[in-house]
Amino acid sequence: MGRYLNSSCKLCRREGMKLMLKGIRCETSKCPVEKRQKSLAPGMHGWRRRRGSDYGVRLREKQKVKRYYGLAEKQFIRYFQKAEKIKGNTGEVLLSLLERRLDNVIYKLNFAPSRKAARQLVAHGHICINKKKVNIPDFTVNIGDQITLKSSEKSKKRVKSQLEVNPNFSTQGWLQLDPKTPSATVVALPTREDVQFPVEEQLVIEFCSR
Question: Is pTM, for the whole model, over 0.85?
Answer without folding.
Answer: no
